Amino acid sequence: MKLPRRRRMRRTAILAALGACLTVSAPLAQADSTSHRVFEPRTEAIALDHSVTFAGAVLDTPPAHLAQVFPERYSDIPGVFTFRGGPTRTGGSWGICPLRERKLEIAWIATTGRSPPPWGGGAGWTGQPAIVQWPAVIRHSMSRLGPRRFEDGFVEVIQGSLDGSVYFLDLHTGRPTRRPLATGNPIKGSVSLDPRGYPLLFVGQGIPDNKPIGLRVYNLISHQQVFFLPGRDAASPRKGWGAFDSSGLLNRATDSYVVGGENGLFYVLRLNTDFDSIDLTLKVRPEVLRYRYAPPGRKHLGIENSFSVVGNLALFADNGGTLQALDLRTFKPVWAFAAGDDTDASLAVELEGERPVLYTGTEVDKTGPRGNAWLRKLDALTGKVLWERAYPCQGARTPKKIDAGAFATPLVGTGDVSHLVVYTLSRCPNFTGGLMVALDKASGAEVWRRPMSHFAWSSPTACRDEQGHTFILQGDISGEVSLLDARTGDALDSVKLKGGIEASPAVFDGMAVLATRGEWIYGLRLR
Fold this sequence. Notes:
Layout: H1 5-18, E1 49-54, E2 57-59, E3 79-80, E4 93-94, E5 104-111, E6 121-122, E7 130-132, H2 136-141, E8 156-160, E9 165-170, E10 181-182, E11 192-193, E12 200-204, E13 214-219, E14 224-230, E15 249-251, E16 256-260, E17 265-270, E18 274-276, E19 281-283, E20 287-294, E21 308-310, E22 313-316, E23 322-327, E24 332-338, E25 348-352, E26 355-361, E27 363-364, E28 370-379, E29 385-394, E30 404-405, E31 411-412, E32 420-426, E33 434-440, E34 446-452, E35 461-464, E36 470-475, E37 480-485, E38 491-496, E39 506-508, E40 511-518, E41 520-526
Parallel strand pairs: 4-39
Antiparallel strand pairs: 1-2, 1-20, 3-7, 5-41, 6-40, 7-8, 8-9, 9-10, 11-12, 12-13, 13-14, 15-16, 16-17, 17-20, 18-19, 21-22, 22-23, 23-24, 25-26, 26-28, 27-30, 28-29, 31-32, 32-33, 33-34, 35-36, 36-37, 37-38, 39-40, 40-41
InterPro entries: PQQ_rpt_dom, Quinoprotein_ADH-like_sf, TAT_signal, WD40/YVTN_repeat-like_dom_sf, WD40_repeat_dom_sf
Domain Pyrrolo-quinoline quinone repeat: 436-521
Keywords: Signal
C-alpha cells in the first residue's frame, strides 16, 4: 500500500538522518558486513564432546543463515554497549578524558532500591553500565524520555541493579531519565544494548527471585519485554541453575545476539528484528541455536565470563577452567585448553599483526584455599601457551568458602602502553589484600606492580587524554577508586565511595559511571 505523501516525506527524512548507522529493518545493509576477518585455524581432533541443537533437532551442520562472522567495528554510534565495550573485551570507555589536573571528582550520586539480603541494591560483579548517545531519530521515538528526547547531545546511562531493576540516568546530572524497568530478579552482570542504535536492551538475570530466571529482552520504546530465554533449559547439561551473568554481543551484520549461560550452554539468537521508526514498532522473532559441550573428566560447567569474539572465533572459559575457541561458522570447537581452575574473568583478545592472541587469568577456587592464580597469554588460533606466570593467593574454606585470584578482566594496553597488559588480582598474596601487575606482552615479565590494601574484583578501565597518555580507573572492595598512570602504576588521585566496589566502571568522554554494593550509582568527573 502506498504511504500518504506526508508519511513518505517523513520516512525519507528519517532514512537520510540514519545514514550508515541504521536501517529500518534487519539485517543491515551489505556494507556493514564487508569489514571483517575470517580465520582458518588448522583444526585437529580434540577431546571435547559437543552438539548443536536447532528447532528441536541435533544437527551436524547448522543452517547457513546462523553462521556468524563479526564485523571488526562493533558500532558506529558513540557509547559503551556491552561489558568491556565490544567483542574483544578490551574497552569499557569511549571518547577522550580531559584529565588536565589528574583528578577525580564525585559529580553526582543516584540511588537504587534494595532486594532482600544478601543482595541489596546497587551493583555487584560485573555490574558495568551501558552508556549511549542515542541517534536523534531513535531518541525522538522514545516518548518515555520526556523533554530529553529533543535534547541534542543527550547521553543516557543504563545500569542493572541487584534490586532487580534497570535504571536510566542522565550522564551529566545523574537524574532519572525514565522510570526504572523491573525485571523480577537481581541483576549481577552487565546489561547490553543493540550497537546498531535500535532500542533493544538485553538483561541477564543473576539470581532467581520473583520470576523464572533467564535472559530478558526489552523494547525501550514501550518498555515491554519482547523475548525471554529461560535459563533453566531442558537442553542444559547443568540442571537447576539458569543465571546469565554474561553480557552478550550483537552481530549487526547478521541480526544475531550471541551469549553464554551459567547453565553450560552457548546460544545464538537470530533475532529477525522488525523495527519501524515511523510507526514506532519493534518486534523480534528469535530462532535459537544451542551449542553444548562436555570436557572429559571435568564436571564443573557454566559460562560466567562474557565471551570474546574475533571474526568467526568465539573465545570463552567456564567454571571448570576449560578455555575453548569455537568457530562460529560451523559451531565446532577449534581447540580446548585446561586452565587448571575456575575462570570467570573474560578473555581479552587483540591482534598481533594478523594473528589473534588472548590474555586470561584463573581463580584459586577448586585448587584453594591457598594456591596460584595463573596469568597467561595464549595463541587464539591454536590454544598454545605463549607465556604464563603464577601468583600466590589465599582464599578460605571456613566458616564459608571464599575464592581468590583473577575476577577482573585484564586491561590490554594500546597507544603509549601498547606493550603492557594489566591484571588485577583478589586476595593475593594475602587474604585481605590485592595486587595489580603490568606485564610485558611479549615476554610476560613484570614492568610494574602495585600492592593494594584491599582486594578487588572490579576490572581496570583505561581512558586517554588529548596528549595520548593512558590512565587507569581501579576500584576496590573498600569503596576506593584510584586514578593511576598506566605507564608506571603510580596513584595520581583517589575518591572514597559508599559501599564496596565489585562492579566495573564505564567511561564516556570526561565522565565515569560506577555502581557500588548497597544502593548507589556514582558519576565521577575526570578532570
